[in-house]
Amino acid sequence: MAIKIYKPTSPARRQTSVDTFADVTKKRPERKLIAIKKKKGGRNNSGKITVRHQGGGAKQFYRLIDYKRNKYDIPAVVEAIEYDPNRDARIALIKYEDGIKSYILAPIDLQIGDQIISSLKRTEIRVGNRMPLESMPLGSMIYEIEITPGKGGQMVRTAGSVAKLMAVEGKYATIKMPSSEVRLIAKEASATLGQVSNPDSMHVRIGKAGRKRHMGVRPSVRGKAMNPVDHPHGGGEGVNPIGMKAPKTLWGKKAMGVKTRKPKKYSNKFIVQRRKKKK
Asked: Is residue 42's pLDDT more than 90?
């Protein structure tokens, strides 16, 4: 991916950068692999807003991504690299030998014409191939990792993310996650070799409010700018601090830095080392 930076012809342009989509080879999606994506505006089935600051945005179709890749030992050829409006990573259109097509998350360096395969035993060590963790060499860079074998890739799916296979011992494989957390995963669980495509997406600068509205994000107002009746941070003259020991949400609960993980969560026993906090 390449990023284009505009000349500063206006205050908004000065801050804006865009993706050039140089790595995208096909514009229109495969018609049989898309679904209607309805706008909800952050509302639940009762019509009440449960997620604030959502609404509007460009119309999108959802691409049906194959996270399981359970057509085992059938080679597939990469036909195209496509843009997906629902994620930062690129997706790849692949065609199996029996003629069936599907979308997968594209790794870095996957090219049109490359042959990839998914298997339940050890196969060729090549970017895009999928196999159980116990069949991979130690030190492999992987993504799209299953938590429960056979359920499909659930972890390490965002653009540019990658995990590392550290060890395989007993029933479990030890994985170092992108967050630096080290955890145990069942060795029968599958993962894909490589790193998720489009790592530079984090460097794109939105630049102006209108572009955020096209993404379906509505404006948010700071609590400090409100009245006391509207927010715990509200009130005061001029530029004042929030006036309390810790930040709070609109509903008075503590925010920012509060631990939300349950102390007795079932997966605690699988975490070998918690992530390191960035300074």
From this structure: yes
